[in-house]
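As described in the Methods, two query proteins were run sequentially through the folding procedure within a single session, without resetting any intermediate state between them. The first query and its resulting C-alpha cells are shown here.
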Amino acid sequence: MVSLLVELHLLEARTDAAILPQDSARALFRQQQKDVYWRYEVTDSAFVQSYRYYAIHDKDLDEIYSTVVDSLSLREARLTTPGSPPPHP
C-alpha cells in the first residue's frame, strides 16, 4: 500500500507540474493512474476499498502515511543533494 501511495502522489505532483488545462491534466492523471494500478496488479475498486478500510482504522492510515511522507522526503532530499544516488522506482 505504501509503494502504491508513493507512486500515486508522485504521479499527482508530475501532473500538477505539467502546464496543462485542468481537464487535460485530470484526464492524464486518470490514464496514468490506471497504469499504476495495472503495475501493482490492483483494480481501482480494490484500491478504494483498501483505502477506506485504512481510513476507518485511523492508526493504520497514520502509520502508512508516515512511511509515505518519509519515502517522499527521502526522494526529495536525493534530488536536491548533488552526487546522491537516484531514487529507486
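Immediately afterward, the second query was submitted; its sequence and C-alpha cells are:
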Amino acid sequence: MTFRTRRLAGVLAALLGCLALSPASACTSFLLKAADGSRVYGRTLEFGFPLESQAVVMPRHFASHATGANGKSSWSWTSRYAIAGMNAFGLPILVDGVNEKGLAGGILYFPGFAAYADSARADPGHSLAPWELLTWALGNFASVAEVRAALASIVVIDVVQPTLGIVPPFHYTLHDASGASIVVEPIGGTLKIADNPLGVLTNAPPFDWHLTNLRNYVKLSPTEAPPLEIGGASFAPLGSGSGMLGVPGDPTPPSRFVRALGLVLSAAPQKDAAETVRLAEHLLNNFDIPMGLVRPSPHETARFEFTQWSSIADLSRGIYYVKSYEDQVLRSIDLSKFDPDARGLRIAPLRPSPRPPTLEFPRR
C-alpha cells in the first residue's frame, strides 16, 4: 500500500468514525437561470464535525487513483479539465466544484438509502469509491450528457472501513452551462440516474420521493392571498407572504427541498451571472444552520450539525465562490486566472478574516 493510499485510508477511517457518531444530512443545492441564459449553482455543506475543507484548484492532467476492495488502490485516471472546488481533510478529492467547461456538482449525504455495488464482485478496473465519483466526473467530462453516457462504464462500490463496517452514504447532483441537470443515486447496487428539471436536491429519501411529495404543496404561490369574505366580514392576511403560507421551515431534507424549490421559482431572474451569484447567496442564507439548532441528543453540547461552508458556481465564467461559518464574506476562485496545465494542486485554507472590513465613508 502506497503512502498516499495509507493516508487516504487513515483519513477515511477517522471520517467514517465521525459519521457513525454525528448527524450529517442537511446539505441543500439548487440551480438558477439568469435572464441572459447563464446558470449559477449554489449549495450548503453541513456536517456534525469539522471537515477541515480547503479550496482547491485541480489542473488538467492530474492523476487520481480509484479505491478498490479492502481499500487498495485499483485503477487510475488523468483528468482532462481543470477544476475549482472544495475538498475534505486535505484529500486530493472534491466534494463540490466546477470545471473549466462549466460542469458543476456536489456530493450530498444520503443516509438510509445508499446501496452500492458489491466490491467483491465488481470489476476493479471500473470501480470507484463513493467519495471519488464527483472528482472523476468533473475531471473528465464537459457536460451532463457526457457524464450520463460514461456512468454506464463504472460502478460505485461498498468500500467498507474494517473497524466500523460502514461506507459513507452519498448521492450526487450535476449541472452544466446549458442548464441540464441530473441526480445520481446508488440504489440497489446500481447507479440510478434521473433528469432534474427542478435543479434542486437535498438529502434522503430518494429524489423521486421528493418529486411525489411536491404534490402536497401545489397551492403555494408568491402572490398574496386575497381576503376571505364570510357573512359580510372580511379576513385579510396578517402581513405579507400569505401566498407562501405553509412552506415548511424545519431543517429536515423534505422540508428544505420544498423550501428551496419555492425560493428558486419565486425569485426574480437577474440579468446576468454576476447578479445571479448575489441572488444565490441570498437564497443560501435561508438554509444556514447555526451550531445548536440540530443535535443528536438533548444532552449534546459539543457535536452539532452546522453549515460549515456555502458555495456558488458561475457555470458560464468558471468562477467558484465560497464562504465559511467563521467568515461570511464571499470569496472567489476564477479558473481563468490559473494555469490549467500547472503541475500539482493549488490549495487555500478557509482562514477567517480577523475582523470585518471597515466601511469607507467619503471625505467631505
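Confidence is low (pLDDT under 50) at residues 1-23. We note this only descriptively and draw no conclusion about the first query from it.
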